[in-house]
Amino acid sequence: MSALSSCRNVVYGCVAKHMTPLSIDCFSERKEEIVAKVASKALVPQVVVDMVANLGHRDADEMDDLPDEDVAKDFYAKYEPKEVLGRGVSSTVRRCIEKETGREFAAKIIDVSADLEDSQGLTLREASLREINILRLVAGHPYIIELHDVFESNTYVFLVFELCKNGELFDYLTSVVALSEKKTKAIMKQLFEGLHYIHSNNVVHRDLKPENILLDDNYNIKISDFGFARLISPKERLYDLCGTPGYLAPELLRASMYENSDGYGKEVDLWACGVIMYTLLVGFPPFWHRKQMVMLRNIMEGKYEFCSPEWDDITDQPKDLIKKLLVIEPNERISATEALKHSFFQAVRARVGPFNARKTFQLAIMAVRAMIRIKRLKYTPEPLSLEMAKINPYRIKTLRKAIDGCAFRVYHHWVKRGEVQNRAALFENRPKVEVKLLYMQSIAMNTRS
């Protein structure tokens, strides 16, 4: 038994060093490397190596299994489930088709058979029912995900949502690296309008992030995932720790660390909006750090910067709005209503004066010339200085965007360039000695044979 336990520890130790928890896709991509790592360990039987080799396929197949039709007759009678769109710890999201109309929806299938409790003492079923009640309370807003249908059985809860074919804002941001001020303005305006509606119904979301913001066919946002949302009275304060580390507000961290804390309220959602807006504009969040304790300390101190060269071409208005959102004291932080009144969202009004034909004609000529130049920009390459590329390639916007995109795809997480770390260090990888030894041993064995 001790030998088997030892082997199991080696297996999971190797897997834990090479993959993010619950990331089956990441495991599949790096399976060969992990298997080689396990095989290199002494006293590891071949059966254990085979177990690791089949680990990703087994877990994926188990999560892909659909509930039996006897368990959810009502759901299967109305909908036809299709491929998997996403997975969570205890849930799977599938595309499904309504049989009567042929319309497409997204079905979130939650396994509530396990008697697990969250930090508030709620079981999965109770937490799911609370989420359903909140979704119904905030229904009817164009920028909030619509709950279309609900089915419940002894072991599963089925939530049928509208289908957002363009996926998560996070994935869209990963593909484009950063958004323009105009696109950021459109997304943040919709986010603040949706958040204002949520707060007006005395609900705090507590987990706003790009992964929980979906995009519909027209790239309008849909706020989703109300699993951590809570009903809250105007003077009520919350103390439990929940959310995603990079988007947690300072008062939420204080509430979990100090007994004499004042707690937190709806203001935590506005802090998260500040982090999201910062991330949209430059492609990385303000407080992210590989060491989580350093990141949390930066959040508590409100320590961030508009670093160069990413922020050099961004105007002062979005910077000012971010500063008013990322305020340590929640009482001084602006609300969603105040954010919508910020100058960043206000359209510039032209002055109306007496009509002048000559000036109007000259203005039309200038507008046509500008449009021609803008169209030509698409086919005109950006001037590239070889000297600048040698000295500081990251200052060139085209190269910077390519580097950021590659870094995210390689490391599967945000990469911040600041005083503590830099992107150049990411490519200074140490040689993988153990893998090299395995490779050399295999060559030696082949030459002998």
Mean pLDDT across residues = 80
- Main sheet: strands, sense, barrel: 5 strands, antiparallel
Order of helices and strands: HHHHHHEEEHEEHHEEEEHHHHHHHHH
Q: What is the number of domains?
A: 4
Could you say what the CATH topology of the largest domain is called? Transferase(Phosphotransferase), domain 1
Order of neighbouring strands in the sheet with most strands:
1-2-3-5-4
Beta-strand percentage?
A: 5-15%
Strand segment count: 9
Characterize the overall form.
Answer: globular
What's the layout of helices and strands?
Elements: H1 2-18, H2 24-29, H3 31-39, H4 46-53, H5 55-64, H6 73-78, E1 79-87, E2 91-98, E3 104-111, H7 124-137, E4 147-152, E5 156-162, H8 169-176, H9 181-200, E6 203-204, E7 213-215, E8 221-223, E9 230-231, H10 250-257, H11 267-282, H12 292-301, H13 316-325, H14 336-340, H15 357-377, H16 386-391, H17 397-411, H18 433-448
Antiparallel strand pairs: 1-2, 2-3, 3-5, 4-5, 6-9, 7-8
Helix pairs in contact: 3-4, 9-11, 10-12, 11-13
Catalytic activity: 2 ATP + phosphorylase b = 2 ADP + phosphorylase a
Subunit structure: Hexadecamer of 4 heterotetramers, each composed of alpha, beta, gamma, and delta subunits. Alpha (PHKA1 or PHKA2) and beta (PHKB) are regulatory subunits, gamma (PHKG1 or PHKG2) is the catalytic subunit, and delta is calmodulin.
EC number: 2.7.11.19
Describe, in plain words, how this protein is organized in 3D:
The chain is α+β, with helices and mostly antiparallel strands. It has four domains: 2-64, no CATH class; 73-162, Phosphorylase Kinase, domain 1, CATH 3.30.200; 169-345, Transferase(Phosphotransferase), domain 1, CATH 1.10.510.10; 357-427, no CATH class. It has helices at residues 2-18, 24-29, 31-39, 46-53, 55-64, 73-78, 124-137, 169-176, 181-200, 250-257, 267-282, 292-301, 316-325, 336-340, 357-377, 386-391, 397-411, 433-448, and strands at residues 79-87, 91-98, 104-111, 147-152, 156-162, 203-204, 213-215, 221-223, 230-231. Strands 1-2-3-5-4 form a five-stranded antiparallel beta sheet. A hairpin with a 5-residue loop joins strand 7 (213-215) and strand 8. Helix 3 (31-39) runs antiparallel to helix 4 (46-53) and helix 10 (250-257) packs across helix 12 (292-301). GO terms for molecular function: ATP binding; calmodulin binding; phosphorylase kinase activity. ATP binds at residue 108. Belongs to the protein kinase superfamily. It comes from Oppiella nova.
